[in-house]
Amino acid sequence: MTTVTQMKCACEPCLCIVSTDSAVQKDDKFYCSEACADGHQDGHGDCGHKGCNC
After folding, report:
1. What global pTM score does this model have?
2. Considering Cα of 14, then 19, then 22, then 24, what sign does the dihedral take?
3. Which residues lie closer than 8 Å to 28 by C-beta, 6 or more apart?
4. Cross-strand pairs, 25
5. pLDDT for residue 26
6. Collapsing DSSP states into helix, strand and coil, what is residue 31?
7. Number of neighbouring beta carbons within 10 Å of residue 46
8. Is residue 31 within 8 Å of 45, Cβ to Cβ?
9. Alpha helices, H only, the chain
10. Strand, coil or helix: what is 7?
11. Are 31 and 10 in contact (CB under 8 A)?
């Protein structure tokens, strides 16, 4: 059995890899930030991670 500890943020255009321990979890999906988890209600490019323009 393999336990996944890291995965890509569930936000489609996001490039971030998140730890399942520290990710923001919503609807059984893992996100790198609240902005991604909330569907970028304030617009894109605001996940807060350098080099990511999701």
Report:
1. 0.86
2. positive
3. none
4. 30
5. 97
6. strand
7. 16
8. no
9. 34-37
10. strand
11. yes
Token pair for 13: 């255009």
How many residues belong to the chain? 54
The pLDDT of residue 10 is 97
Instruction: Sketch the domain layout of the chain as residue ranges.
Output: 6-37
What end-to-end distance do the CA atoms of the chain give, in Å? 33
Looking at the chain, the number of H-run helices and the number of E-run strands are 1, 4
Q: Which residues on neighbouring strands pair with residue 8, listed in sequence order?
A: 17
Q: Can you tell me the distance from the alpha carbon of 16 to that of 9, in angstroms, rounded to the nearest whole number?
A: 6
pLDDT string in tens for the chain (54-residue length): 888 899 999 999 999 999 999 999 999 999 999 999 999 987 777 798 999 989
Tokens representing 34 are 């609240």
pLDDT at residue 46 in the model: 75
